[in-house]
Write a structure and sequence with these properties.
- With 161 residues, the protein is mostly helical.
- Helix content is 75%, strand content 0%.
- The chain contains 8 helices and no strands.
- The protein has helices at residues 5-8, 14-25, 27-50, 66-96, 101-112, 117-123, 130-151, 153-160.
C-alpha cells in the first residue's frame, strides 16, 4: 500500500477541531467519572437497585421495572467507563505530543487540570497577555486535533456512537 505525503501529516478538519475542543472541555469530567467508577462500582450498582435512579430510565416509561432498569443503568455506566478510558487515554497521548512548551502548559492548565479560561490566564506566567493565552489555546486544540486524527480518535468515536 502506497501512501502520499499529504496522508502522513493529515490536518484535522474544522469539525474534528470542534469535536476535539468538546472532548477537551469534558476531559476532567471523564477523569473524575473514571476514578469514581473504579472506586465505587459495587456501591453504584447497589444504589441503582435500591435507589430511585432506576425507577424510570425515561419520562416516557409508563411503568417501572426497577430490577431490569437497574441492570440497564449499570451496563450503561460500564459502557461509559470503558469509552471514557479510551477517550482520555487518546486525548492525554495527543496532549503529550505538543512540542511547544508554552502551548503545552496552557493546554495542561485549561483542559487537563480543568481550569476556566480566566484561571488559565491567571496561572500562566506573569506578563502573558490574555490574547496570547487565547492563541495558545487555539493552537493547542488544533495540535491535539491533528494528533487525534492521526491516532484514529474520530473513527473510534463514530464506531462507538
Amino acid at each position: 500500500m502506497a501512501y502520499e505525503q499529504g496522508e502522513l501529516f493529515a490536518e484535522a478538519s474544522e469539525e474534528e477541531i470542534a469535536q476535539t475542543e468538546f472532548y477537551l472541555e469534558r476531559y476532567r469530567d471523564m477523569i473524575l467519572f473514571i476514578a469514581d467508577f473504579e472506586g465505587n462500582e459495587a456501591d453504584m450498582a447497589q444504589v441503582a437497585v435500591d435507589g430511585e435512579s432506576a425507577r424510570r430510565l425515561s419520562v416516557d416509561d409508563l411503568h417501572a421495572d426497577k430490577t431490569a432498569n437497574a441492570v440497564i443503568l449499570n451496563e450503561k455506566q460500564k459502557w461509559m467507563y470503558e469509552r471514557y478510558r479510551v477517550y482520555t487515554f487518546m486525548i492525554f497521548r495527543a496532549y503529550n505530543l505538543i512540542r511547544d512548551p508554552d502551548v503545552k502548559e496552557v493546554i495542561r492548565v485549561r483542559f487537563i487540570q480543568g481550569h476556566s479560561r480566566k484561571e488559565t490566564i491567571l496561572f500562566t506566567r506573569r506578563g502573558t497577555a490574555a490574547s496570547t493565552v487565547d492563541r495558545y489555546i487555539e493552537k493547542g486544540i488544533k495540535m491535539v486535533a491533528n494528533s487525534l486524527n492521526q491516532m484514529g480518535f474520530f473513527d473510534e468515536i463514530l464506531k462507538r456512537n
